[in-house]
Design a protein that fits this description.
Elements (H helix, E strand, L loop, with lengths): L1 H7 L2 H14 L3 H13 L4 H25 L24 H17 L4 H14 L5 H19 L8
Helix pairs in contact: 2-6, 3-4, 4-5, 4-7, 5-6, 5-7, 6-7
């Protein structure tokens, strides 16, 4: 993480990472986008609501895993912690989980490939901010992909 911070931790990148952190906190930003989709796309309102709920479910799953694993957040003098966190538990990254679930679910509803656009910036942001190990974000993303992939099959508008 100190290498990531040293390589790309410029002021604009840190500012963007903090914005992503705020947006992804408790999956609230992704949930809000799902509700917006439900409001705008009346024909697939139910699917958007299922997707929004799936993002929250993925976040909840990550919290459950955190409480079982109980891995502490990084604590190394070479790593600057640049944002507050709601807990001291690190594995898996809930931001990575909910972002990946949202990207998978919303891709199916929009017909756009959102995973490569949305997921890498969020995963990197958690490293730039010094609050996760690389394995935390990778595991979180895998969990989000699993939850999102399972739910996406149930959506009428989703691509199978």
């Amino acid at each position: 993480m100190s290498r990531v911070q040293g390589a790309i931790g410029t002021a604009p990148v840190v500012t963007a990472a903090k914005g992503l952190s705020l947006f992804g906190e408790h999956s609230a930003g992704w949930f809000a986008l799902g509700l917006l989709g439900a409001a705008v796309d009346k024909r697939r309102r139910k699917d958007w609501l299922v997707a929004a709920g799936g993002v929250v479910a993925a976040h909840a799953a990550s919290i459950a895993v955190k409480r079982v694993v109980r891995r502490p957040r990084p604590d190394d003098p070479s790593v600057k912690v640049l944002v507050g966190t709601p807990s001291k538990l690190s594995f898996p990254s809930s931001h990575a989980t909910s972002t990946t679930a949202a990207a998978v679910l919303f891709s199916g509803l929009t017909g756009r490939k959102l995973v490569p656009v949305l997921v890498p910036p969020m995963l990197l942001s958690r490293l730039v901010l010094g609050v996760h190990y690389p394995t935390d974000v990778l595991a979180g993303s895998a969990l989000g992909a699993l939850v999102g992939g399972l739910l996406r099959r149930k959506l009428r508008g989703g691509k199978r």
